Amino acid sequence: MITSRKQDIILAGVGGQGILSIAFVIDNAALREGFNVKQAEVHGMAQRGGAVQSHLRLSRDAIHSDLIPKGAADLVLSVEPLEALRYLDYLRPGGRVVSSSTPFINIPDYPKLEAVLGRIREIPGSLVLDSEALAKEAGTSKAQNTVILGAAASFLAVAEESLLEYIKVLFAPRGDKVLGANLRAFELGRKAAG
Question: Fewest Cβ atoms closer than 10 Å to its Cβ: which of 3, 71, 128, 187?
């Protein structure tokens, strides 16, 4: 956890990857810790595979806009590498990127994956991990979003225990198997981040 009075985060991915689930966990963890929170989300096509992104703004002070200006984001979290590239111009100098290396190829002219990953890795402090393999190791490929959240946990302005509390709130109603897989996914992501 970093200590900060404010943090601006871009969440990115495609429909069906659980971007809004990550937002739910971070938003509620931040509220629990006394942050003011604003969130703006953009959904792509109303179907699996359309672009989804969310702006999360956390602050100990008043927040006047729910949109993060270009060049101001502290963190870009992405469950899809090409979607991470879309938001690099939002990153502030010294900001970080945490991205999956697993593509969701939903367009015929998807660029060469190594070029996409290479561009992300050019960002100092970036973290690119195989969220699909880690999610499968946790018990379900659907937990890639939770792997990314775990990998980003040490870069967030909220405590890990708060994140875990809201992972439980979100996934416990879906049963012990789903909750357990997501808790394991968070831990595997956290360990992969070092």
Answer: 3
Q: Other C-beta atoms within 10 Å of 61: how many?
A: 9
Architecture of domain 6-192: 3-Layer(aba) Sandwich (3.40)
pLDDT along the chain (194 residues), means of 10: 82 88 96 95 61 92 94 97 95 97 90 96 96 97 97 97 98 97 98 94
Residues 6 or more apart whose Cβ sits within 8 Å of residue 42: 51, 52, 53, 54
Res 106: pLDDT: 81
Is the C-alpha dihedral spanning 128, 189, 164, 79 positive or negative?
A: positive
Question: How many Å is the maximal CA-CA distance in the chain?
Answer: 45
3-state SS string over 110-170? CCCHHHHHHHHHCCCCCEEECHHHHHHHHCCHHHHHHHHHHHHHHHCCCCHHHHHHHHHHH
Ramachandran class of 125: left when φ > 0, alpha when ψ lies in -120 to 50, beta otherwise: left
Residue-level pLDDT at 46: 45
